[in-house]
Amino acid sequence: MELFRSHVLVCGGTGCTSSGSAQIIEQFEKHIAERGLEREIKVVRTGCFGLCEAGPVVIVYPEGAFYSRVKPEDVNEIVEEHLLKGRIVQRLIYKGDGAAPERERSLDKIGFYKKQKRIALRNCGVIDPENIDEYIAMDGYQALAKVLGGMKPMDVVNTVLESGLRGRGGAGFPTGLKWKFAMGGATPKYIVCNADEGDPGAFMDRSVLEGDPHAVLEAMAIAGYAVGASQGYIYVRAEYPIAVKRLGIAIGQAREYGLLGKNIFGSEFDFDIELRLGAGAFVCGEETALFSSIEGERGEPRPKPPFPAVKGVFGGPTIINNVETLANIPQIIVRGPEWFSAIGTEKSKGTKVFALGGKVNNTGLVEVPMGTTLREIVYEIGGGIPGGKAFKAAQTGGPSGGCIPAEHLDTPIDYDSLAAIGSMMGSGGLIVLDEDDCMVDIARFFLEFTVDESCGKCPPCRIGTRRMLEILERIVSGKGEPGDIDKLIKLGSTIKRTAMCGLGQSAPNPVLSTIRYFRDEYEAHINEKRCPAGHCKALMRYIIDPDKCKRCGICARACPVGAISGDKTRPYTIDPAVCVKCGLCIEKCRFGAIYTK
Amino acid sequence: MGKKLDPKLFEALEQVIVRYKDHKGPLMPVMQAAQDLFGYLPIEVQDYIARGLDIPLVKVYGVATFYSQFKLEPNGENTISVCLGTACYVRGAQKVLDRLKEELGIEEGKTTPDGLFTLSGTRCLGCCGLAPVIMINDDVYGRLKPDDIPGILDKYRRARSA
After folding, report:
1. Helix axis angle, A213-227 to A153-163, nearest 10°
2. Chain B 2-21, CB below 8 Å of chain A: which residues?
3. Chain B residue with the nearest C-alpha to that of A295
4. What are the backbone angles phi and psi of residue A133, rounded to the nearest 5°?
5. Is the pLDDT of residue A276 over 60?
6. Which of A16, A468, A494, B2 stands the most exposed, by the fewest C-beta atoms within 10 Å?
7. How many angstroms separate the CA of residue A18 from the nearest CA in chain B?
8. Residues A192-199, mean pLDDT to the nearest whole number
9. In angstroms, rounded to a whole number, what is the distance separating the alpha carbons of residues A367 and A376?
10. pLDDT band at A583 (very low <50, low <70, confident <90, very high)
């Protein structure tokens, strides 16, 4: 193997690619070649580093210098100064959270990474995902070798059971138990990887697929050996083109190396994987709907039982696991179940990856041990809320989850504690909301999503969620009526009990949890026709502060509907009956005298 | 149907059908390949797939209308997808979408009369760190403000007139 004195790691995840990391790689290769350094310095396109906020991100080893928001025109300077002369380019070094003196900026000193523990993401941002040799160099495929080299299928299942691993896709069902249920029964059996990551605001599965695709392939082969399946399917969103491409490359390389296909590692075990693309239907993340889609049907769910372990895709017993769940498996096999179960809380073992987004300084992907508190994630890792605003709530679990208010910031996060406070782990989207966000409108936003994505098969979801949305739309437009809150609660609880699949059963959660913690906001909308966050346009009032008004009249001239009156002798005022809430007056006022309430 | 469909594309489609015919569950991969070839799925193409895979046309149509990615009408030259995920929503995606509607004079899901732009809302693109985000064809524009929109659109208008 060739040795290099420096490695330049450039993030090739979707976030950084969107902000131009491909051109940065080109520039590095060009400038390095111009100076004849290509045998000394290696440029690697890796998966996601996690700190998307600082993207595009470049890390140079051995120093571990962490460059952020790099532009193609900065590359020449990094090559000249850092790679040639050994001087770190201070102006480009990440300075986001002031935790360490600037010149020492490396990964382990940045607050964003300090509290993290990377298991599912361990190779993301470290290896070149398009090169199987790099995965193998990080102990890749060692777990598969160990399993095929002497473990009985029952041993494999027991190892996963003892580790305490639970499904990372949402419901948190014990993974080992799923595998155990599929051990007996009919053949052929199937292993399906659910990579239809549809929750808005969740992108950890995409990052694993983009940054470490072989970990998923290896885990699927291990599952195949454990239950006696020889065919696997990965059902991945078509909206993730980079993940699709890298999975294709990884499957090709694994076949070439004999790690997929016939007689793997010279054993009797055959296993192969086929890629299937979704076509833009959120409901297909529900396991039985996903099976329908692979079979070429409309993606409608089926009643359970029969459960997938008995009758899944193409009618065969099927194990279906989510991407992040699978990414933990090889590590559990290599390092043992005790190692894994020592991390986390009593009933939730290991780590969880969260996609941190919304009103928080460090947006990106974070992986923390189960039991970390929301406060640690939002303030220590996420660096707090921008603009000095106040934390209002964190939304977890996407359209199936709920909002966690400030009073629960110190709750240790695991499956059971989140359920107890009316939210859920879900796939790990974590959107931070601040004082400017209206909780009624957030509930309406999620309901709009579920109404749009409901497949229409069962009436509680098809009709019930639409009725709930209509009530919410009425409330945010100032036409709420007394009794609406009770109607929402009654309708929501009924839908939860009677809908056929997970989508419908969890659809009312965003509404019910915001009513539970922010009932006063609903009441203000309904009874006082007022939006406390000042977000809902229909309820907004534009007001001129008479003390700040300099009586210049610019606002009155700018107003397109003539709603503002006044003159030199008296402060200007806005007639709410005429005002169309366009916001032009606020833009024009040079004294900040106009505000909304 | 306005434009006549290219017979060469049907030949290519035939090969796709032959390749997938013996796979389990061939319909979705064949339809996705067909959409890549034709750009959308006119009824003639759906009919061709139905005959090729020996399944009823109603089933093909059922699948085509279920999934949001299958298009029954051709798109404009440039497709603008506005991310409506949660992270983008709380950082102002709705204002970006409203501005796009205003600048283009069309509603979501429609194409401009000159055929230059199709405007669509899309589910989370997964670049939440760049919120709010739009994607035009394969290019992503992040950390947007509504006032950035006219400049971005002009780029594509100039590219056409050039």
Report:
1. 120
2. none
3. B25
4. -60, -35
5. yes
6. B2
7. 5
8. 93
9. 12
10. confident
pLDDT of residue B146: 93
The residue among A324 and A107 whose pLDDT is bigger is A324
Class of domain A6-111: alpha beta
Whether A297 sits inside 8 A of B140 (CB atoms) is: no
Partners of residue A6 on adjacent β-strands: A41
Contact between chains at A445 and B89 (C-beta distance less than 8 A): yes
Q: How far apart are CA B25 and CA A447, in angstroms?
A: 32
Q: Which top CATH class is A351-434? A: alpha beta
pLDDT digits (tens, 9 = 90+) for A513-548: 999 999 999 999 999 999 999 889 888 888 899 999
B66 contact A CB<8A: yes
A21 touches chain B (CB under 8 A): no
Pick A296's closest partner by Cβ from B27, B69, B70: B27
Please check whether the domain covering A439-527 is classified as CATH 1.20.1440.230. yes
pLDDT at A1 over 70: no
Write the CATH number of the domain with boundaries A541-596: 3.30.70.20
Q: Could you tell me which residue, A541 or A173, shows the higher pLDDT? A: A173
Segment (H or E) for B64: helix B57-66
Q: Which of B62, B63, B68 sits opposite A280 (nearest CB)?
A: B68
C-alpha–C-alpha distance, residues A153 and A329, integer Å: 14
Which pair of structure tokens corresponds to residue A305?
A: 């039982």
Q: What is the pLDDT of residues A90-131, one digit of tens each?
A: 999 988 765 444 545 567 777 788 889 999 999 999 999 999
Average pLDDT over residues B41-62: 97
Chain B CB contacts of A275 under 8 Å are none
**Per residue in A437-490, pLDDT tens?**
999 999 999 999 999 999 999 999 999 999 999 999 999 999 999 999 999 999
User: What span, in angstroms and rounded, lies between the C-alpha atoms of A278 and A453?
Assistant: 14
Q: Tell me what the mean pLDDT of segment A183-190 comes to.
A: 92
Q: Can you state the percent helix, strand and coil of chain A, rounding each to 5?
A: 45, 15, 40
pLDDT for position A414: 93
Enter the ipTM: 0.89
- Interface residue A460 vs chain B (CB under 8 A): no
User: Nearest CA of chain A to the CA of B75: how many Å?
Assistant: 16
Which residue among A18, A53, A280 sits closest to B67, beta carbon to beta carbon?
Answer: A280
| Cα–Cα distance, A381 to A395 (Å, whole number) | 17
Search chain A and give the residue with CA nearest B138: A18
3-state secondary structure of A275: strand
Residues 6+ apart with CB under 8 A from A288: A301, A302, A304, A308, A501
ω before A305 within 30° of 0 (cis)? yes
Provide the residue ranges of all domains of chain A, joining segments of one domain with +: 6-111, 132-341, 351-434, 439-527, 541-596
Most confident option among A344-353, A422-431, B90-99: A344-353
The answer to whether residue A314 neighbours chain B at the CB level (below 8 Å) is: yes
CA distances, A590 to each of A452, A548, A585 (Å):
42, 10, 10
Nearest Cα of chain B lies from the Cα of A438 at a distance, in angstroms, of 10
For chains A and B, CB pairs below 8 A equal 130
Whether A202 contacts chain B with CB within 8 A: yes
